[in-house]
Amino acid sequence: MFKWDGLPDTIPQRNLELIIQCNGCAAFYRHNGELYAFSGGLGGEPNPYYMPTIFTIANPALKLTVNAEIDKDCIIVPNDAMYLGLLPLFSKYATSLTENELSIMVALINSRIPALISSDNDGATKSAEKYIEDIKDGKLGVIASQSFFDGIKTQPYGATSNTNIITNLIESQQYMRATWFNDLGLNANYNMKRESINSGESQLNDDALLPLVDNMLECRQKAVEKINAMFDTSISVNLASAWEDNEIELENAQHETENSDNRKNKGGVNNELPEKVE
Q1: Nearest one of 112, 111, 104, 108 to 171, comparing CA atoms
Q2: CA distances from 263 to 189, 195, 260 (A)
Q3: For a pLDDT cut of 90, what percent of the chain falls above it?
Q4: 141-195 pLDDT tens trace
Q5: Are 47 and 104 in contact (CB under 8 A)?
Q6: Which residues pair with 75 in a beta bridge?
Q7: What is the pLDDT of residues 73-121, one digit of tens each?
Q8: I want to staple 197 with a disulfide (CB 3.0 to 4.6 A). Which of 163, 168, 177, 201 is the partner?
Q9: 186-222 tens-digit pLDDT
Q10: What kind and span of H or E run contains 65?
């Protein structure tokens, strides 16, 4: 999602983003002359805005345990303005999708049962079991006696109760997956219309894609400015992959709109009255 440049060898980009996105923040701290990114705990006496002032680091591999003062000994890189990270968001959608997939599995199994069969005697029960077994094996079931029909009763089950359940569950799956991507700044189809949709409808959620991604990038870039100033580095961070493509497309669209407005202004109607000619 983000592309880091200028990171020291002691801070792999993958591990840095894992710490930030999973824990809500990471701390850049110099140890034995090397710069590292650590996970840890926020605490200490709050500042006037009730923000933490101490970051506690406990790293067994480096045999390091320290209470680093924020903005003096270390720099905090938050994932977002609320220091939440992405795990709460992922947990919400992953739980919903798992429940939905379980419901689909149960619905598919129930769809195999067109009717419930009940019987009043052992003979009819055995005949019904033999009949179902033959059908399951691909054989043509044969009813040997009239007593079979007299001894069993059927109740419609799958054919009526599961008519629209699977379709509705698939639509729910699509909606939850698309909303998950939208919250992460990726445009995915969430429109439940079964007919074709126009371009306006497909772009209804474009504005909703931006706030979280923009906030995450801003938090990283502001922290990078502090890191470069404190540790004399030249680190930078920007959007990557599909998020970078979306940003480029948005900038191009804005430029086209500005150029169009400028052309309209230059070619506008002159409302001033012409000078009177003697």
Answers
A1: 104
A2: 34, 38, 5
A3: 46
A4: 665 556 665 656 666 665 555 568 888 888 889 889 988 988 888 877 666 655 5
A5: no
A6: 28
A7: 999 999 999 999 999 999 999 999 999 999 998 888 777 767 667 777 7
A8: 201
A9: 877 666 655 555 555 555 555 556 788 899 999 999 9
A10: strand 64-69
Dihedral sign for Cα 194, 199, 205, 209, please: positive
Distance CA 53, CA 51 (A): 7
Residue 103 tokens, joined: 């419901």
**Per-residue buried b or exposed e for 172-209, using 16+ beta carbons within 10 Å of the residue's own CB:** bbbbbbbbbbbbbbbbeebeeeeeeeeeeeeeebeeeb
Alpha-helical segments (H) within the chain: 13-23, 87-110, 122-136, 146-151, 158-161, 165-183, 199-202, 210-231, 241-266
Which residues sit opposite 153 in a β-bridge? 118
Neighbour order of strands in the sheet with 64-69:
41-43, 54-59, 64-69
Nearest CA to 79 among 13, 20, 29, 1? 20
Alpha-carbon dihedral sign for residues 210, 215, 220, 226 = positive
